[in-house]
Structure formats: structure tokens, C-alpha cells
């Protein structure tokens, strides 16, 4: 059995540099969305109000109105996205929800937001990095955007100029579909329970939509953590990136070593270096 | 319902340039591995003997010996790998299977193999590309390797200098773990049935190994297509990349347009541009 366990260890993604206690920062309760699926499985999403304030404002109103309760996860396209929320039976949005918010896809500049910059450009962006509070970023010269990494949450929309209300959301369950960056609003990241969205049966109809003979997964409820009773409220922390311990972690991600990795890469893709988020201790 | 369908269309990965009939080339029957899981679900893997001949020779011998029959899929780590094959109950390899083949991780040069080169370097390699027969490649100056894209199949191994016999295999079910490139043997790509490996319940023990209270998925049989009776034998074709139709497809992947993509990227990640493989018509 030893050989087998070593084989597992050899494939492990290790974290060579541990954070100090002060590196863990509280995520506000109104920036955590709790989606409860049939079976009681919960998906926790960290919201990104700093980057998509109008879309996140919509999402908060939708949660406060219990608008998603009784909707479903109805699309699972392999190596692409799992999508959920309002279908054609939910055409009316709650009061105050804007059907087409501003296109919150990018912002001018990069340095004002980024804390970490990765060693190399990637296939899409001149520079990639992380904000001090742990969001993945890409810079395209004059503008920057969040990046469509695995587990990031975006707003499904119709053809441009539609920007999507937030009533239909998706998360990435495969290789980062970065061509969506700058073309769609990213509003958050699944920080716990991703497996309940990534391991669902794939849809067999066009684009991974569930066919008539498949059963969409019912959504029992979606709430902001701040809407829940204090004793039921989950509390999360993000790992800050603006400290030497995190810089050492990135360096280790860029140059894997140890008894398994005989060839270091000298770089790492932003989507292979997302900072940890954990439950408050 | 129209709005909803448009929303799906907006998230679709489209193929703007169609291949000509002559672009489809037959994959030899002894380069297709057919794994049948409990429930009759089949996973078809295209083997890469050109890049890892000794490891693929082992895999063919293991299939011919029916060695995997009765083993299981015992590890599913979210956003990383699904792993299967010989456990500690399968310590003896069939005659002729080499326990540690040569380290078939990379080869000198790039131009002799590549047909397509992508527009930009990525976070890992100076150049990335595709072979004429559709394999994803990365060039690191003097040497090149296959790349750990979603659905690629590799050989689990112990710590170096172990190279892995091929008795334990894995496939990528998340964002490409490219730091594994040049450190492990890639032997193929799942070309049909990926969903049967990507949608399995995630393992709850360390590194995504199934815990005692979880049930590994039994593997009923693994055979080369060439081992099967002619009337049961699946036949696959790959899309050749050395023609102007494929070049146009890559150009379209690098610069998405149409009514949804308002900002083209000017580049594409090799793992977002894997050539199509299909059943022979």
C-alpha cells in the first residue's frame, strides 16, 4: 500500500509556505452567498462587489427576495460550465433588480488593484496577478478584468448589449474559458462545496442543457450569510496576498520542487494559483 | 424561452470553421483503449505511442492481459485528476510489462513535431502548438512535451526516479495542471466518455482518494479496440491540423467574434484549442 500512497503524494498539489494567523482576513457576511441544493448540499460563493457592484447589488436583492428558491441547476456542460437559476418560469424580477446593469466587465489600469504579478504573460493577457484580497486578475494594456478560472462565478446573459441581471449564474467546471473575460460579468467564486456543482451529471441536450429525460437539481434556497440567523451563519476568511509568506507560496507554485517535481517551470498560470479561502477558526 | 436559449447560445463554444472530409484521418484500432465501467459506461482513450512508446507498450500488454478487469476508479480530486487501475491487490505485473520504463516526458526540439504554433507564449512555455495529428505540445527551449490539458491521460508514479508502469492512470478533470508537464509520462487523451470520469463523486479522503465510506467505481474491462471482435470495434478519426481549414479554426479561437464576444483576445491557450476527434462516419 505504501507504493500506492506515494503515487497519490506524487500527484498532490502541495502548499509549501504556510500563512501566519494575521494573513487570514474576515469576509463580510453580506459577501457570502449560501446555495442549498436538494439533499442539503451547500455551495458557498464569495461575492465580488468591488468589481461588479451593480450585478452584486442585483444578486443580493434576488437572495433577499428568496427569488432562486424552487429554481434549479439545469445546465452542466463538461469542461465548461454549470449553470443555474431563473428559467422561463421566472420571468418577473423582484422590485429594484435591474434587468441590464452597466457592463461591469473590466476597469482602467491594473497597478491600483493588483498586489501580486505573475512571472510571465499568458496566452491572453500581458500581465496576470492577484488582488490583495485574493481575486485573480488579468491586465490587457489599458484595462484589467477578473479571470474565468475554475470555480469563478459569472452572470449568464443574452447577446450583447445584454449584460445579464444575475438571475442566471454559472461557474466554471473545466479549463479556464478565458475568452469570456472582458465579455461577461464575473461576480464571485465558489469557496466551499464546488464538488456539488462540478460532479453533477452532464446535460445531454445542446450545450449541456439537461434533456427531457434528465432531472435538474432543485435549488432549495439561496441566501446571503447575513440573512441567516447568527447561529446558522457561516463565517469565511480569505488569505491576504500582500505579505512575504504569500510571495513565498507563489514562488513555490512557480517552481515546484521536492522529490516528485524534477523540472521546475519558472512560472504559474493565475488559475493554478488561487489563494486559499477557509472557514473562520 | 427564447431568452433562455439565447443565454445558452451566448455561453456556447462554437466551431466557426468546418473541416473538409479529407481532414478526418483514421486512428488505428490499436491506439484506442476502451474502458468499460460499472453500468456499461464506456471511456475511449486515444493512445500516444509516438510520444511515450515504452509506456504505451506496457499499457497494451496490460490490456491484452485483461489486467485492469476488476480494478476500480478510486481517486477523484476536484479540479485535478480522476485516477484508476492497480491497487495494492494488484502488485504483480503481467509478463513483459516494465515496472519503470524510460522517462518519456520530453523530447529534443519542437519544429519537427509541431504543425500549428499558437500566437503567444503561455505561463509555462516559450511556444505551444499542435502536432499534425492533433496532440497538444509545449516547447521549453531545447525540449518539448505533451501538455496536461483537460482529458489528457497520464501515468501515476512514485517519487522520482520512478516513471510508472502504466498500471495506474489518471486523467485531468480541472484546469490544466501544467507543472506536471516534463515530470510525468502523458500517454493519451480521453476522446469519448470523459463525463463518466469527470462527474464521479469527489473522494473525501486525503488527495481525493475515496474514503472507507465511499464506493470506488468498478472497472469491468479495459481492451484495445484491436482486441475486440470486428463488429464490436469502435473506429475513431482525428481532425488533421495541417490544412487551411484548421488554421482558420485556430484564428477564430484566438479571436472570438459574433453577437456575443464583443472583445476578441488575440490568442488562445493550447488547452482551449484541442482538435476534434470523432467516430468514423
UniProtKB/TrEMBL annotation, chains A, B:
Coiled-coil regions, chain positions: none
Keyword Membrane among record annotations: no
UniProt entry keywords in alphabetical sequence: Isomerase, Rotamase
Pfam families: Pro_isomerase
PANTHER family named among the record's database cross-references: PEPTIDYL-PROLYL CIS-TRANS ISOMERASE CYP38, CHLOROPLASTIC
Enzyme class name: isomerase
Matching SUPFAM superfamilies: Cyclophilin-like
Organism, as annotated: Sphingomonas kyeonggiensis
UniProt protein name: peptidylprolyl isomerase
EC number: 5.2.1.8
Residues in PPIase cyclophilin-type domain copies: 35-207
InterPro entries assigned to the protein according to its UniProt record, in alphabetical order: Cyclophilin-like_dom_sf, Cyclophilin-type_PPIase_dom, E_coli_cyclophilin_A-like
Gene3D superfamilies: Cyclophilin-like
MF term (GO), any: peptidyl-prolyl cis-trans isomerase activity
Source organism superkingdom: Bacteria
Amino acid at each position: 500500500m505504501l507504493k500506492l500512497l506515494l503515487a497519490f503524494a506524487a500527484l498532490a498539489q502541495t502548499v509549501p509556505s504556510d500563512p501566519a494567523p494575521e494573513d487570514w482576513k474576515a469576509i463580510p457576511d453580506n459577501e457570502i452567498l449560501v446555495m442549498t441544493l436538494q439533499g442539503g448540499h451547500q455551495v458557498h460563493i464569495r461575492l465580488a462587489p468591488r468589481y461588479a457592484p451593480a450585478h452584486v447589488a442585483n444578486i443580493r436583492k434576488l437572495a433577499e427576495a428568496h427569488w432562486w428558491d424552487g429554481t434549479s441547476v439545469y445546465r452542466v456542460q463538461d469542461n465548461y460550465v454549470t449553470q443555474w437559476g431563473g428559467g422561463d418560469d421566472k420571468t418577473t424580477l423582484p422590485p429594484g433588480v435591474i434587468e441590464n446593469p452597466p457592463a461591469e466587465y473590466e476597469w482602467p489600469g491594473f497597478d491600483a488593484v493588483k498586489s501580486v504579478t505573475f512571472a510571465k504573460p499568458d496566452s491572453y493577457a500581458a500581465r496576470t496577478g492577484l488582488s490583495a484580497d485574493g481575486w485573480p486578475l488579468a491586465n490587457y494594456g489599458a484595462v484589467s478584468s477578473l479571470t474565468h478560472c475554475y470555480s469563478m462565478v459569472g452572470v449568464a446573459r443574452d447577446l450583447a448589449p445584454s449584460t445579464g441581471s444575475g438571475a442566471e449564474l454559472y461557474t466554471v467546471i473545466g479549463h479556464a474559458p478565458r475568452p469570456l473575460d472582458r465579455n461577461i460579468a464575473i461576480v464571485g467564486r465558489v469557496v466551499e462545496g464546488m464538488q456539488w456543482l462540478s460532479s453533477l451529471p452532464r446535460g445531454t441536450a445542446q450545450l449541456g442543457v439537461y434533456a427531457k429525460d434528465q432531472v435538474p437539481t432543485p435549488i432549495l434556497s439561496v441566501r446571503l450569510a447575513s440573512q441567516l440567523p447568527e447561529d446558522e451563519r457561516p463565517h469565511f476568511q480569505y488569505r491576504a496576498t500582500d505579505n512575504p509568506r504569500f510571495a513565498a507560496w507563489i514562488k513555490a507554485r512557480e517552481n515546484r520542487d521536492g522529490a516528485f517535481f524534477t523540472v521546475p517551470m519558472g512560472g504559474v498560470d493565475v488559475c493554478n494559483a488561487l489563494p486559499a479561502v477557509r472557514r473562520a477558526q
